[in-house]
Specification:
single chain, alpha+beta, two-stranded antiparallel sheet, 13% strand, globular
Amino acid sequence: MTPAELEASESETVTVPFAGIDLILPASMEDLDGDVIDAIDDQKLSHALQGMLGAEQWAAFKRTKPKVRQYGELFDRWAKAVGLESLGE
């Protein structure tokens, strides 16, 4: 689904495929918890992702044994899916 289609659908979540799993994330920055925004502001990418994913999905993500660059890649995939500029490197 394109960002425009996502906005038109008024969906609260977006599915982002990553390393063979589908991760369900908020469809808008406005739906992120304050702790997630604080983590983004403090450049604590892993804390932000953990807050966005929740405990179960965070555990699934961690089981993929992600490298540091893949944290940024997941953020970038989410940003692209919701129509934002890149948030990672």
